[in-house]
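Subject: sequence -> structure tokens, single chain

Hey, anyone have a minute? Need the predicted structure for the following. Not urgent.
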Amino acid sequence: MNEFERHIRAAIYASFRDQSRSPSAAEISDALSASPEEVSSALRNLAEEHCLVLVPGTESIWMAHPFSGIETDFVVTIGDRRWFANCVWDGLSILALLGGQPGGSLDTHSPATGEGLRFEVSQGTVRGPGIVHFLVPARRFWDDIGYT
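Reply:
Had a minute. Here:
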């Protein structure tokens, strides 16, 4: 990752943190006073390096872990702000990164029953309806990151 790509990555995470969404390639271009071609190339490089995931066939950011650039069934709430995560792991990570005090919650559903599930984090403690089970070992996440 070169210096320009680091700046792009920082702009992406700042947008998720501050605006609860991913920036468009045009917004990144404007913010960094860079050409659309430079931004496009850098986004593709970052995706190849597994620093982010682009929506297939586009320059739109699908994932910049732990954040999701698209709506998902994993909704993180801190105060009056919301973010989308890609999975429970990512949702809890957003809470760890941004939750602070008093904390926040992650709402999703059981893949087996469809029942709503809420995990609450307060003062560094996670409270939820049960355990979290990851069907795919972490070392295999990138085999199919869209599914995992």
